[in-house]
Design goal:
With 111 residues, this protein is mostly helical. It has a domain of 46 residues. The chain contains one helix and two strands. Strands 1-2 form a two-stranded antiparallel ribbon. A hairpin with a 2-residue loop joins strand 1 and strand 2. The radius of gyration is 37 Å and the shape is elongated.
Length: 111
């Protein structure tokens, strides 16, 4: 029923799109997942190795990113300098071909 509070000591339930889920009493959060067996749990040394590997990978990616940014900056600077130093006739904005104007408006003579 809508508007009723759960009875004291009962487990509160929430519904979302018609689904019911059990909440951990008093926390408003779903119950914790079951414990991982000891033989499957990662060791501290293993976690540290994974963290060091991830940190090294991030450092490598940051370095590569820096190199790519520098190369792009250099290429764009060269492109800009080439456009500025190019003769006006060869600049891209001045190379548009215009249709020739027809000045004579004479009508052809009839035979």
């Amino acid at each position: 029923m809508v508007g009723q509070l759960p009875a004291p000591g009962s487990t509160p339930r929430t519904t979302c799109a018609g689904r019911s889920s059990v909440l951990a009493p008093g926390s408003g959060m779903p119950p914790a997942s079951p414990q991982v067996p000891d033989r499957q749990r990662a060791t501290l040394a293993s976690l540290l190795r994974r963290l060091e590997a991830a940190t090294a990978r991030i450092r490598d990616l940051e370095s590569e990113n820096r190199q790519l940014r520098d190369a792009l900056e250099h290429a764009l600077g060269e492109q800009r300098a080439a456009a500025i130093l190019a003769p006006a006739a060869t600049r891209p904005e001045n190379t548009m071909q215009k249709e020739p104007r027809r000045h004579s408006r004479k009508r052809p003579e009839a035979p």
